Amino acid sequence: MNGLRIALKCEAFVALHTFSGKLILLAPTIVVTLQFLLLRLTEAGQSARDNLLSNPSFDEVVANNAYGYYVDGLSTGLTMLGLLLVAQAAYSFSFDRDTQAARHLLVRRVSRPSLIIAKLLHLHVLGALSCLCLIVLAYLMSGLFWEFGAIVEDGFELISEEEIRNEITTGLRLALIPLPAAIAFGVFISVCAQSATQAVTTALGITLAIDIFKTMLGDFAYYIYASFQPSLIDQSYLQDVSRLVRGYSDVLIDERVMLLNNWVPLPALLIFIAGALWLVRQKKM
Fold this sequence. Notes:
mainly alpha; two-stranded antiparallel ribbon; 12 helices
């Protein structure tokens, strides 16, 4: 436990004095803020043009409902956060090994497994803080530019605010479940790789390859943890929530997929952690 405490202190010190920790914490919220500003400016221009040409616009209540934009912001932020966490996880141990920083910790009686566990805990804390900032800022910014409310069409309430919040909570929970497995995957690649550059390029390359080719895997894709993350080619439940909170009725919810979303990332997490802990004992430092 003493070795783990020393390793955690080192991780905290590095996070406070390097750019990478601040990037993970702030980059998703900054990108989402810019996304909202751009959308608001685009909508203002579109509205001005429609008014000038006297063109009828689609339902303003649905168009200006903040919940849809809030979910889009969460999806964008979590996509970026997932890639940043994978890259940082892959960079972490391999960089320490390249610079001999890991050897200095071993001299201070920090065990090799403690190094890995400390990095996993540190990355999870960073991810949790970044997620919290993203959720709060996306909510405040979407509420500033648009108005939260139920989905109403022709005087009938299609979806109440309570139902919308429940769906967003479910979508957010399902989107966050694969993140620990993604972090563990990055750390596993970090231990396997020969250099920090190789680790980062390999981890991001595999992650993006899964994202691109998962549509070709059919049902097999549902047994890969990364399929449930918000991503560039998004098939996560949060993407369905984005359509639901805009009043679309053609969204099909597969209970089996939701069940797999809950359980598939856990074995992947355990396999990657066990693999990293075993490999770090075998490799030369």
